[in-house]
């Protein structure tokens, strides 16, 4: 069973850091694709980063490459998004999502994920 709970959002000045957490309170994250998405007011949801917990392979959107790091802690059934050098344009509601791989790869689009958390707000000023 998959039940995702995000935490760690907040307000930080530009250049600051935050670490978001996404826990599967319903069970393990073994062999799952976990993705982080964000949506700012008036904008479409966009993919930020993803990880396949079976082998730890990650993928990042170009806008966050080098600033954000996605990682996993299997013992805690949790995936993290470490965000550094935050910019005002990173301000958004951040969501984590989970699903199985499709065709040997993690889903690229949000609509391909079945399981979602409730979101956590990140504000950079």
Descriptive terms for the model:
single chain, 125 residues, mainly beta, seven-stranded mixed β-sheet, four-stranded antiparallel β-sheet, 47% strand, globular
Tell me what the structure shows:
By secondary structure, the chain is mainly beta. Helix content is 0%, strand content 47%. The chain has no helices and 11 strands. The chain has strands at residues 4-7, 10-12, 18-24, 33-39, 46-52, 57-60, 68-73, 78-83, 92-99, 115-116, 120-124. The strands form 2 sheets. Strands 2, 4, 5, 6, 9, 10 and 11 form a 7-stranded mixed beta sheet that branches. The chain starts with a strand and ends with a strand. The model has no long low-confidence stretch (mean pLDDT 96).
Mean pLDDT: 96
Enumerate how many helices there are, as a single number: 0
- In helices, the fraction of residues equals under 10%
- The total of beta strands comes to 11
Would you tell me the structural class of the helices and strands? mainly beta
Strand content: over 45%
- Beginning-to-end CA distance, first to last residue: 37 Å
Task: Point out poorly predicted stretches.
Answer: none
Largest sheet: 7 strands, mixed
Rg for CA atoms: 13 Å
| SSE pattern | EEEEEEEEEEE
Question: Strands, helices and their partners?
Answer:
Layout: E1 4-7, E2 10-12, E3 18-24, E4 33-39, E5 46-52, E6 57-60, E7 68-73, E8 78-83, E9 92-99, E10 115-116, E11 120-124
Parallel strand pairs: 2-11
Antiparallel strand pairs: 1-3, 3-8, 4-5, 4-9, 5-6, 7-8, 9-10, 9-11
